[in-house]
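EI: anyone free to look at a 308-residue chain?
SC: sure, send it
EI:
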Amino acid sequence: MKTKIINTIIIISCLITLIELLINKTLVFNTISYSLNIWINSLIPSLFPFFIISDILINYNITNYIPLVIRKIFTKIFNTSDNIITIFFLSLISGFPSSARNIKIMLDKKLITKNEASHALIFTHFSNPLFILGTLSIFLNSNILALIILISHYTPNIILGILSRNLNKKINNTIIKKESNSFPKILINSIKKSIDTLLMILGTLSIFLVISSLIINRLNLNIYNQTILKCILEITMGLKSISELNIPNIYKVIISSMTLSFGGLSIHMQVLSFIEEDNLSYKTFLISRFYHALLSGIIAFLLYKTII
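SC: here you go
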């Protein structure tokens, strides 16, 4: 009965959306054009090379080349095996949804357990630093404010990793074996997988931007409600809308940091596309993002009061 109700709601929602698409053809065209512009000018440059390099590094024993002292400190703090350190640092420099993507790659290669994968989802959710220091600094017209958001976004992951360390059942370190394939084949496979991931990102980005635009147009929302809706659905548009609000900078920094840390439903859908096949808990990821957003807001407030 519950499934039937859910299916009915989905069907009705799709039919309503279809009607809105037909009525608002120009709006939909402009929104999709805008999403393509974001994808081409922002997401591809900041994600595509990192996706490829991450795949290659995972295939070529990058964990084993990290100094032993760093691995020991990391595994001691977070109660993990060595391979999680690779996911952590590659996700930190790549940005979401790299964390879920790298977790799936290592899980498929049997380099980590499902328990470790679920644990890693809690504290390896990072935004791309180039996006924060580049795009956000332009939105807010301030490098200092962007730096505060960067720190307040990254720090909670370390806190969450420490607080959740007892949730992980530590296992013996798994040695990453280099692929028997030649480098050209590894490179080509990495490019193919990266393109697939980017196309998935484009699809989710476009659909959530279209939904957001249709709702705003139909309900005639004010600027504040528009901003809330955009932040919930798609963060790039939400962060831009926050920067345009007529509110003090401290509130812009706090709200931007919390929005970035939660991720928006578009990012959540991308993460879900990677973890559902392996039956990893989305609930764990979702709850972690609420804590991440809360801690991020508190740290952003403290940093702003200290620096500005």
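EI: The radius of gyration is 20 Å.
SC: 👍
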